[in-house]
Amino acid sequence: MKKFNIRKVLDGLTAVSSSSSSSAALQPGNRENDVIQETLQSEHFQLCKTVRHGFPYQPSAMAFDPVQKILAIGTQNGALRLFGRAGVECYCQHESGSAVIQLQFLVNEGALVTALADDSLHLWNLRQKIPAILHSLKFSRERITFCHLPFQSKWLYIGTERGNIHIVNVESFSLSGYVIMWNKAIELSSKTHPGPVVHISDNPMDEGKLLIGFECGFVVLWDLKSKKADYRYSYDEAIHSVAWHHEGKLFVCSHSDGTLTTWNVRSPAKPAQIITPHGKQPKDGKKPEPCKPILKVEYKTARAGEPFMILSGGLSYDTVGRRACLTVMHGKSTAVLEMDYPIVDFLALCETPYPNDYQEPYAVVVLLEKDLVVIDLAQPGYPSFENPYPLTIHESPVTCCEYFADCPAELIPALYSVGSRQKRQGYSKKKWPISGGNWGQGAQSYPEIIITGHADGSVKFWDASALMLQVLYKLKTAKVFEKARNKEEKPSTDIVDEDPFAIQSLAWCPESRLLCVAGVSAHVIVYRFSKQEITTEEVQLLEVRMQCELNEVDSPDVGGDQASAVTTPGASSSPQSSVPQTHPSTSSNNSSDGLRDNVPCLRVRNTPLKQSPGYQVELVIQLVWVSGEPPQQITSLAVNSAYGLVAFGNGNGLAVVDYLQKTLLLNMGTAELYGSSDPHQRQPRSPRKARQPSGGEEIAGSVYARDNSFSRSRSSSVASIDKESREVISSLHFCDCLSRKCEVTAVASLWLGTSVGTMLAISLSVPSTPELRLQQSVGISFCGSVVRLKGGIMRMALMDSTGSLQPPAYECWYDLNAPEEEKERTRRRRPASPPSTQENQDSHYAVVCSEKQAKVVAMPSQNCVFEHNITENSFVLRADVVVMPAGICIACFCTVNPCLQCNYCAEAQTWNGSSRTFCFSNLGQALYLTSPTEIQRLTYSQETCDNLQEMLGELFTPVETPEAPNRGFFKGLFGGGAQSLDREDLFGELAAGKASRSLAQHIPGPGSMEGMKGAASGVVGELARARIALDERGQKLGELEERTAAMMASADSFSKHAHDVMLKYKDKKWYQL
């Protein structure tokens, strides 16, 4: 087994060239890395996407397979999302990225046709776990506007912008020579071009009759056999959609003026009925006032009741500001269902796939711009089904994200038990109707949780185990604060114009279930998990004043206000004598010069707060305005349940809060953390009026916590000036380690990294027992700088002497509101297993990663045993020290792609929020928001990639197609039933000839023959393989026949030439030759 070498592991993952990688920097005489055995190799890593969750971003089209029970949604960026039962999802992408304008299932065939805005058609094979394109057809002379594929037909009708209709064989994806030209369809009935084709459908009772709708309001019933129009129907308003009655005698058109016209097939002179569903009927019998266009109508019949007419749009123009509606007309009743977002498309789900039978609609799938709603048509009031898909990620924009793999097993059931009480009531009692597909067989055995923070202040916990995603629990942090009812009541102390409760970062301890969130309004909230409901009479509040003023270069001296903590009366009731000096908080404190001072950005509610089971507020920490300058937003956050501490930092400095005693332990500017050994050249601030100190010096433990914070204006000009000189606390990490060179026993410590690449250490003296912990203060002492790196520090971690990751100490979860005997039984602190060492001997290692470098430092000697330059021309956006099955490694996500090779970084950076939400987790998992509504999960583990096929669900399952409707004795005897049509005789090459080659180009797909072979399995697979074998045999026989014909032609030619030579020299003598 090879020796420990992080550089080799990093090179295996990133494939960085040797020029950008520096060799390991070993101090002379130190060989600590020889002790640690290397377990990770490049073959342990493989990068690939796994699954995509969330609502399809910018949807544009939808289709449903009524036999397979699968829903397909296309988007404006060429994405294709397929949904089956809960947990069965699939994501595909067209290479061109053009918008999907229409989808057509080959019902119960495991195939799907997509039509794109770039006038291309694609045939997808859904019989494999990762669908692939079998064929493509690119039109070059005409624009595609509408597609129609009859049930159990292999001929696809294509309507174009010029008004023509072409026919495609979906098996070979070749064009037929049969074309319906627009001028033949309308002949002399119209003097102008009818416009694009907006509808194509065949008569349910006669496949030989094709109904063609043109945009101008013209409809033609075309006879395919005679190649002429039987009837022509004209209306003076543009058509948006057409729907048939199942008997084929009536059809309904929706128009741009909000009207519905019902036509009798044999009466083309005028409509049998004209209605305006949402129009006001004048008393004098005049025509109703025009309404908005009815974009789509569906006409579905029921055997035992009145037919359903379902439509979108058509509202009156005087309903300005009204939300989009879906109208359901059933008999004499009309129900108008308001939607939260505009309607993109809708489909009625019916019991039968046959268009010539009673449809029996039971549900309506409504695709909205940002939601998917399924309505139950069988229950009174038309309730919606409870959606099992994770489509509410974007309910409020995601502002931060964290990913935790291999969590405690009891955590997901605990979150689900409290989250199940938050579910809405009033859903349909029936099962979710989109129920196709099967789950994957090989599931990951460890639990995974994703936490998302949102712009409205909410925090959502998701169960992400086994490549699925399900919401567990939702926490609303905004409940802690008072909300302004209108703009006049909005406080003038806000530092953001919108979303003042937005979550900026969060820290979570899965073992203790302790949660800490930081918001954009410079506030931090500490939550504990409890299964009991409580009412908090007064929310505990701690206000912190952070500022820093440097008066001269390289001067660490204090200038300005001292550190101060302001607590509410409820927060100052702690029994210790070491509580910092406090003064009451007011909402309108001003300094002597009239500037805002000691005022928080948000008002904490002063009324009793009822807290349901789940996460409950323990403490609210707010940074306050200082002499007219707003508080800096929080840039780093850490919490530790074993120590009972919360630490956070920003551009002004560092603050450490004891959330058990509700006291401020440390509030210090960044420059003061260095002490007298500050290595940085600090620029002086512009001259300002001297400020009067507002409080005395505070003592917490053995430290003088003097606030020397460095505040700045939020104007862009000052921000650009201060950017280079301001040192921000960029990373924090609690651990038990040897932070000083002279220490031999590990102690509780806080590591902090800065934006200029310095890692500092602070030792914490935590009382040993829970009783003493509540009575005595935590001592703090500074250990100075540990190591410096290029770029701001992103992540820090601790390894023991064997190279294993040493997690921070934690306190096992106990219910704070449970009875005392139960609380004492469950409460215990996990031993930190502090490494002890002899003098002058290192026992553990600090792993530090910055925007440019990674270093491993031996502790307590603080010797750098390894150094690696991650990138030279870019910088790291996110880094983490993660545990892999075979060891630990540093995973990095960079702006320019040295770490995650493939196309993932490019996609992740197309949307601004991707880099902000990218996060790694243990066991080779990672995720990012690929759009405002979708989470893309990926893996960099070879083991997961190898098992991915087994873990993914199957979309296609063998299902018997329902029997065709019985024609009945009399219909079979006297006719009147459905008339079949042999389309092969009409559209085949023998009858219709070949289409023009310049009209469209056929492009074989990557999954054509190979994809079919890989998809074949079971009985269906045997049939597919047999069919493939026959195709291959037929192809080979065809090639053999062609070669035989060529040989015969060659032989005939040779015989002819030989005969000619013989005749030429037949009668000549030898001397005449």
Automatic annotation (TrEMBL):
Keyword Nucleotide-binding: no
Any single Gene Ontology cellular-component annotation: plasma membrane
Residues covered by the V-SNARE coiled-coil homology domain: 1008-1068
Keywords: Cell membrane, Coiled coil, Cytoplasm, Exocytosis, Membrane, Protein transport, Repeat, Transport, WD repeat
Biased composition (Polar residues): 564-593
Repeat positions for WD: 232-273
Pfam name, any one: LLGL
One term of GO molecular function: syntaxin binding
Cross-referenced Gene3D superfamilies: 1.20.5.110, YVTN repeat-like/Quinoprotein amine dehydrogenase (2.130.10.10)
SUPFAM superfamilies in UniProt: SNARE fusion complex, WD40 repeat-like
PROSITE patterns cross-referenced by the UniProt entry: V_SNARE, WD_REPEATS_2
GO biological process, one term: protein transport
Family: Belongs to the WD repeat L(2)GL family.
Stated name of the protein: Syntaxin-binding protein 5-like
Biological source species: Pygocentrus nattereri
